[in-house]
Amino acid sequence: MLRRTLLTAAAAGLAMPLLPGALRAQQRFASLHVFVPAGPGGGWDGLGRAIEQVARQAGMVGTFQFENVGGAGGTVGLPRFISQRRGREGSIMIGGAVMVGSVLANKSAVGLKDVTPIARMTTEPGIIVVPASSDIKTLKDFLEALKANPGATSVAGGSAGGMDHILLGLLLKSQGRSAKDGSYVAFPGGGPAQAAILGAQVKAGISGVSEFAEQIKAGRMRALATSGETRSLPDVPTLKESGVDVVLGNWRGIFGPPGIKPETRAELLRFVTELHATPAWKELVERQGWEDAFLSGDAFAEFLKRDEAATAEVLREVGLI
């Protein structure tokens, strides 16, 4: 069985009401620059906006400035963050498991080794969906279609080499096919992928549970299975309980610029630790359907090394590198 930790944040456009658990705390930054190496409306952007909401309500940060630079699973924006924010205070980048895979798949010259790990924040399982009008009714139907004609069973997801792509590769492998046989359609953000699925431009879609939760609830998408160890949605089985021995996930977290002073890193660590401890953060994580995966500092840095090695192994096994 192939296992990894997982996460996906909700779309930035979701309304986030005032949280009753928000309490005033010490201000850590007068202003914080949040760099998101993806377009608005996706998971990384959603995590950044959630941090903004809780930190502003708690008085931990005065103002926020967001910068979105999307493309290729974060590997377009990452070099920009490294070059423009090097050594600077008051700046963070949002990233995660998708970038680990994209760096490998795209043979990027820079990776997460070139920034400063601060904290892993959340994790979330993936979910396989089809349009509500699809003639694919069950996971079994979907797997049979993949096995019979994978090229004709197009699947929308995030960047090539990311968690969505890996999950499709593992599903193809479970049916005796190669990941290279699949028809994977990569999108730069959650919004375009949803539009392609709802418009039946593709046969199915894969993303984090929270990305598609509202569409599933509204009856516009049909959920076939999730990739967690246990059910994320009560009426949707996991792959494992459906007979596919795959458990896969997607984490997201916070990084500082390269070359920052030890005291700047320490201040960022205090900020994320205090943010994570607030009742408002715990309430938001639960409401968004995320899983708390907090891991900070050196422990997070060690996790990144293990995660990169595990991702490379999976990508090789399913033929994506």
Question: How would you describe this protein?
Answer:
This protein is α/β, with parallel strands linked by helices. It has 2 domains: 29-121 and 252-317, 3-Layer(aba) Sandwich (D-Maltodextrin-Binding Protein, domain 2), CATH 3.40.190; 125-226, D-Maltodextrin-Binding Protein, domain 2. It is 37% helix and 22% strand. It contains 10 helices and 10 strands. Strands 1, 2, 3, 4, 5, 6, 7, 8, 9 and 10 form a 10-stranded mixed β-sheet that branches. Helix 5 (163-174) links the parallel strand 5 (154-157) and strand 6 (183-186). The longest helix is centred in the C-terminal third of the chain and has 21 residues, at 297-317. The model is unreliable at 1-16 (pLDDT under 50).
